[in-house]
Design a protein that fits this description.
The structure holds two protein chains of two kinds. In chain A, about 40% of the residues lie in helices and about 10% in strands. Chain A is α+β, with helices and mostly antiparallel strands. Chain A folds into two domains: about 60 residues, Orthogonal Bundle (Arc Repressor Mutant, subunit A); about 80 residues, Glutaredoxin (3-Layer(aba) Sandwich), CATH 3.40.30. Chain A has a four-stranded mixed sheet, covered by helices on one side. Chain B is α/β, with parallel strands linked by helices. Chain B folds into three domains: about 230 residues, NADH-ubiquinone oxidoreductase 51kDa subunit (Rossmann fold, 3-Layer(aba) Sandwich); about 80 residues, Ubiquitin-like (UB roll) (Roll); about 80 residues, NADH-ubiquinone oxidoreductase 51kDa subunit, iron-sulphur binding domain (de novo design (two linked rop proteins)), CATH 1.20.1440.230. Chain B has 18 helices and nine strands. A five-stranded mixed sheet of chain B has the order 6-5-9-7-8. The chains are: A alpha+beta, B alpha/beta. Chains A and B meet through helix 2, helix 4 and helix 5 of A and helix 5, helix 7, strand 3, strand 5 and strand 6 of B.
Amino acid sequence: MDIPETLVRKSEEIFFSFPPERRESALVPLMFEAQRELGCITPDTERWIAETVGVSLVKVREVLTFYSMLRRERAGKYLIQFCHNISCCLAGAEDLQRHVEKKLGIKNGETTGDGLFTLRYVECLGGCSWAPMMLVNEMQYYQLTPEKLDRIIEGFRSGRPVPPDEPTPLLGNVGEKIAV
Amino acid sequence: MTSSNGTRLLSRNFALPGQANLDTALKRGAYEMLKRALKMKPEEVTTVVKASGLRGHGGAGFSAGMKWGFVPKDVFPRYVCVNADESEPGTCKDRLILEYDPHLLIEGALICAWAVQAERIYLYIRGEYFYPTRIVQRAIDEARAKGFVGENILGSGWSCHVHLGTGAGQYICGEETGLIESLEGKKGWPRLKPPFYPAAVGLWGKPTIVNNVETLAFVPRIIEIGAEKFLSYGTPKAGGPTLFSLSGSVNRPGVYELPTGVPLKTLIYDCGGGIKDGRRLKAVIPGGSSSHILTAEECENLKMDFESVTAAGSMLGSAAVMVIDEPVSIPRLMVWMTRFYAHESCGQCTPCREGTGWLLRLATRILEGRGRRRDLDDLYELAENIDGKTICALGQAVAWPTKSYITKFRREFEALIQE
């Protein structure tokens, strides 16, 4: 299969970060980058990974199916990973889930008919003090409300995304300035 | 006053603009402590860290200096792995270090690498941390370009390379041997013990120090203020402050850097502004979702250090404090909690792989009003049969909270069971 030049270059960088005799260590980061570039990891991509890393196909499949962020099928253009762990639920994530399901007309794991959004409920994303939170592709959004969710979704629909909450806002005394 | 910002040691530069950029960080003294450490003998550095009372902030609370001291003589190469997998539910403090002061972390990891004479550092960041990863990658590149990372660091003759490792969405890879397996390109199944310490047998079978982000970020501060002063910011058994991740039903959730051993009530009421909408405190999960729940009464005079929280029947863990107010149903909390472990069980040990799924099914059935009278005892017994019968601590991480929810809030479960 045709592997994009950018991915080949990236794979060389990844191999470089491990001792030369430890090419196998590149597996997870390489799959991560391949998915980023190609949208998912197809059997063709698996074969390329197996060859370039120098491991068996079954080994590639074993690692691929272990990690929950790695996928063998494409997601929608915008993958919404919505946290449903304790802190987010304490902050009302379940009501928001019903809201977003209604807004998009899909349930957990489904993709909208236009291929724009895939919705996935996921475990803790490490934004507990800013709950509820979600990721849309690589963008982090915190302190979600129905209104904020609507704005974010409309933003993606219209091609003018709402800027993500980056960096994470400082809450708590770590956000207080001390005179130097 | 504990809620004032004067107690902040690690996070003192977070709020200052541009701290993630090397040039700005250098003006505020970044890498000065690396220079100082490089003038010390490696074993002197370990001695200072041991004396400082620094304990692991990832969950287990093991003495950092002692861990570094476990590296066997004459076995090379050696490695340092920075555990930035932060995925214990409730925990969200490492991400701020990664986003706001990545050079502090790199400096701490380098000082650790110098102390144990490691030649490579791997910074293993969870896959969902896209933004933090970008910031850290840029920081590593900057540090390399300025000679703080790589060959012959600052003319010392010592070389150490820093690389990123990537998680891809698996809680178990935060377990130190699971992390190592993942870095080796495998599924992150925790290793059978013994050998007990990766410090002796770790990455590719070589001595490896695995430390949490916060733990390593404290190291430059220890070199700066000295072990004795650092110790004074905590308790005699756990030196220094702690970053508490405060979430749940409080008015001001956030990350608070406070002396280890601070009263829980100071954290919840003085810092967190008390319970939302003036409601009553019902319970607290003091150290991430793996810790036993504490009732409001048990929180009354609790101090937040390892020994005190353990004495109260729970654990400080990663100091992730989740506050639960009166209207929250504990059977519902049980579903949220068991759902997590059922999803994250790596499948290696039967009691955990099968047990977590059954815990979730029983908890769901009870919550939905389809529970049978014996379900509650079955839940408890299932937890008993996971606890201590697995290779890694994930087993007890689900068993402990399960048992504590049932024991302390049994009536709420019984009220949902019809027969």
